[in-house]
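Can you give me the bound-state structure? Components:
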Amino acid sequence: MQFNKSLIAWYSVNKRELPWRNTKEPYYIWLSEIILQQTQVKQGLPYYEAFVHQYPTVFELANAKEEAVLKLWQGLGYYSRARNLHATAKYVAVELDGIFPDNYTDLLKLKGVGDYTASAIASFCFNEVAAVLDGNVYRVLSRYYGIHTPINSTEGKKVFKALANDAIDIENPAEYNQAIMEFGAIQCKPSGPDCLICPLIESCAAYRKNEISILPVKIKNKKPKNKYFNFLVYISDSDKTVIEKRVGKGIWQNLYQFPLMETEKSIDETEFLKRLNSVESFQDVTLFNSVDIVHKLSHQHLHTKFWIIKTQELPEKGTDISQIEDYAVPVLIKNFIEEFNFEYEI
DNA sequence: AATACGGGGGA
DNA sequence: TCCCCAGTATT
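Here's the bound-state model for the whole set.
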């Protein structure tokens, strides 16, 4: 059997039951695809359920506050996805009367929708012949055809795109796209793939040449950069603290945090007080964590200290401590809030 | 052509 | 530690 027909046959037997597989409604497909970008099904699933429950149609999502969307997205990462999700919902609801574009070219124009997502929606919802190319597809194709071109190089993207367009089943692009991704996700896994029960074992170049473990080839990531964060956790006599919105560029845009003092290296209390007192009058300061909390992102390692500052008056307008859970915060801040337990402290 | 952008999980 | 994940936008 051909490569694509074999995958479809495999898929019909082995596919997982997932909520977005029971619909062709573009809103649900789009929502699931945005959530699943660089995110495993297991991690994204509860978020998908929450969004569908909270925003059953594109109109509810469009009418929501961005703050509410970010709060529901909290913990999933890559927050530009949530901001773009909301912006696109507003665009589709208002400008397109709630009707999503019905083809690859127009879908691609939506914020947060790139080549992969446009292909996925176009094929799943409208059966357009548009081959998806995600991490799973790269792996399956590179192994099956024995391609050593790095998948994250410009050349590689070109080569694999051509291969994907060549392999797609033009009679059933939706099934084929689902099939090759599912196959990559649960059988042709990054490590320890189940080759011995693989329907493609006879014709798989990587298996024949014993290259399963070295394919796909990928250009290595650069080392993450170290950063040193000091969060100023104020507690006033009237049980307020200071929390502020992250604006501008960089990570966690539009999420909330305690006032941040970033330093070149890890600092001690003397150094901290020196920098703090150059701005403010006396405070009672204690360090929450004696050892830096290292929050690891894919491109940054954040060495973090939380400084508890008890004070009569806040340096700026405060927020009731009882309300901090309402704000969308990075996981680093969320973990601190849970561990610190303000209620016990005040 | 590179880099920024999160967080969780597997080996 | 390092790699991967239903990638996209910006530089």
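A couple of observations. Chain A has two domains: 3-214, 225-345. Residues 80-95 of chain A form the longest helix (16 residues).
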